[in-house]
Specification:
Chain lengths: ~325, ~290
């Protein structure tokens, strides 16, 4: 080691750049090689394989000639699956309905969620520190609950006769809807009633996350800025509108992205509570992927649809990166 | 004039403050009710006799309290509850232990070592964060078929032994860990794995707890992957059991709500104990 250092710079410099002594090399690569071999099989390979499958009319119940069951009776069809998405067939139409439903669901969930969590976070922050924690803890409760149990619970809350919601609506003197989850002719501002029900249930289940993130971000806003606004005579609303919201912008963006992406992936509420009905009004893209892949074994078709889901997630993420370039500091 | 205005403005603002406080509490309690009432209602439903369930308008609190629905579930030979709790616990614990190990190990290496290809490998981890499970679930299923792990509880563990988010989280935490401590241990002659095991690991209490609790809850509540992998009744996890049970007893809301309560309860207990960790973890990481 000393001799090498005396002998010349080149060897030492290389050692500094790689920065690993022999013992460390064993540790680093001995740990990383198994981990990345594993990721190769369970992460990289599935990513490649889902793209490959989307070019085939593949079903695991048929035996193909080629490698991994492809070819022969699982023929290569090029962009056939993607063309089928726009085709005037029942499958194509179901796919388009499911994409439309997923987008409607995600945008409305985002809007409703923000409209609830942002003001609620400000209110939680405004009350005494001792009860603050209690409110936060209880608001967070639905997010840690089993999604299946929550979906079953809300299915019962929406029950037309026995349900909590309709009886509450009757109690305050309004006429409740005939059926929340099964009436295909009921709409609220053009949105199917069953979709509204799914949005209510999902927002109820999920709002705790954004609330907690917003509360943490509010705590990060320096006290002095608020005090300065108070001294200048700002009202509560002005403070919210001119100080809180602008300073929360980076957090707001993160929350929008996360909420959007996770709304694209919602499965349980639809599968368990509405079953995609009535008349496919709540059929989501994830349901469509699941059913085609695992009930009808049409895995090539389902793979191409899951790439559409990936594209949707990717677009939202890229838009976020794009907007995030405007850096904020305070 | 200005002094008069100031004098009168102060109490008005005071009154405005307390009115605002009242308003804040009012809204917060409505939120509390909306959050808790559905839970309380299904709990009450599970404690009613079957005859009271179908009454219109329904009662909120039972007129006649009974544990009948729970007794029916416990006595049902097709619902060996202990078995299903054990299945869920096994999968969750196995995943927590393995995820914590791989995440802290890889996170430590990415935080504290420089080596060729590091950025490339870590970039791959970051890309993993963007890929929804539904996108890769079809190939993941086909791999499990090849490994003959379909309809096995190990099939729920083996595809998720390395968690990209966990590695990312651990790297963030370990980056702030002082190098001096690690170097001191090396000078004392500790091997690299010993440094990780005896110096780094004991200082990771908070992030490991957070990651562990989240992995546990996510696994415990997971539905889609078990739905795909598990086919035998005895191997079902709790969420699978719950949908199956509901499909068997569709209109018996006393039974289905009691079953829901039984699935919700363990996580609730975990939450009561670890509430601080969980809420702080979300605030810190934006974990979802």
């Amino acid at each position: 080691m000393t001799r090498a250092a005396i002998a010349g710079g080149a060897g030492v410099r290389r050692k500094e750049r790689t920065g690993l002594r022999p013992g460390q090399r064993v540790f680093v690569w001995g740990s990383l090689i198994p981990i990345f071999l594993y990721l190769g099989v369970f992460a990289l390979f599935p990513m490649i394989w889902v793209v490959v499958l989307s070019f085939f009319n593949y079903s695991p119940v048929r035996v193909g000639d080629g490698p991994l069951g492809l070819g022969g009776r699982n023929p290569f069809i090029g962009l056939g699956n993607f063309a089928a998405m726009f085709a005037d067939t029942q499958a194509g139409e179901l796919f388009r309905i499911s994409v439309k439903n997923t987008l409607i669901f995600a945008f409305l969930v985002l809007a409703v969620n923000l409209a609830i969590t942002l003001p609620l976070a400000v209110l939680v922050e405004s009350v005494h520190a001792r009860v603050k924690g209690l409110f936060r803890a209880i608001y967070f409760l639905p997010t840690i609950s089993s999604a299946v149990a929550v979906a079953i619970m809300w299915g019962y809350v929406f029950h037309p006769q026995q349900g909590l919601l309709n009886n509450f609506i009757k109690l305050i003197g309004l006429t409740p809807p005939k059926a929340w989850l099964t009436d295909p002719s009921a709409f609220v501002f053009g949105v199917p009633l069953a979709m509204v029900a799914a949005i209510i249930a999902y927002v109820w289940m999920d709002f705790g996350y954004n609330l907690v993130i917003f509360i943490a971000a509010l705590q990060g806003i320096p006290r002095e800025i608020r005090d300065a606004a108070h001294i200048d005579g700002a009202t509560g609303w002005q403070e919210f509108r001119r100080i809180t919201v602008p300073l929360l912008q980076p957090t707001l963006l993160l929350v929008c992205t996360l909420t959007m992406i996770s709304s694209f992936q919602v499965f349980v509420i639809f599968q368990v509570m509405t079953g995609g009905g009535p008349q496919n009004q709540t059929r989501s893209l994830t349901m469509e992927i699941y059913e085609n892949a695992f009930r009808f074994q049409a895995m090539g078709w389902a793979a191409s649809m899951s790439l559409v889901l990936f594209a949707m997630v990717l677009i939202v993420t890229l838009v976020q990166f794009r907007v995030l370039r405007t850096d904020w500091e305070y | 004039m200005s002094t008069v205005q100031l004098a009168s403005a102060a109490p008005r603002r005071q009154r405005g403050r307390s009115l605002a406080q009242f308003f804040a509490y009012f809204i917060l309690f409505i939120g509390l009710a909306v959050t808790l009432v559905p839970f309380i209602w299904i709990l009450m439903t599970s404690l009613k006799p079957a005859s009271e369930i179908v009454r219109i308008p329904p009662t909120f609190f039972p007129e006649q309290w009974t544990f009948n629905s729970y007794q029916t579930i416990f006595a049902d030979p097709k619902v060996p509850l202990a078995r299903f709790y054990l299945n869920s616990t096994f999968v969750a614990v196995a995943r927590v232990v393995i995820t914590l190990f791989t995440s802290s190990l890889a996170g430590y290496i990415f935080a504290k070592f420089t080596f060729r290809g590091k950025n490339l490998l870590f970039g791959f981890i970051l890309i993993q964060l963007m890929i929804p499970f539904q996108v890769v679930m079809i190939p993941a299923y086909l791999i499990l078929v090849q490994l003959r792990l379909i309809d096995s509880l190990w099939g729920l563990v083996i595809p998720s032994m390395v968690d990209a988010f966990g590695i990312f989280l651990m790297r963030q935490f370990i980056s702030t860990f002082p190098n001096d401590l690690i170097d001191a241990a090396r000078i004392d002659g500790a091997g690299e794995f010993t440094v990780y095991r005896r110096v780094v690991m004991p200082n990771l209490g908070a992030p490991l707890a957070t990651l562990g609790i989240f992995t546990f809850m996510a696994t415990w509540n997971d539905y889609l992957w078990p739905l795909i992998v598990i086919t035998t009744h005895e191997k079902r996890t709790l969420p699978l059991l719950l949908t199956w049970y509901t499909s068997q007893h569709g209109q018996r809301y006393d039974l289905t709500m009691a079953a829901s309560i039984l699935v919700l309860l363990p996580i609730l207990v975990v939450y009561i104990f670890f509430q601080r960790w969980i809420v702080r973890g979300v605030a810190l990481t934006g974990m979802k």
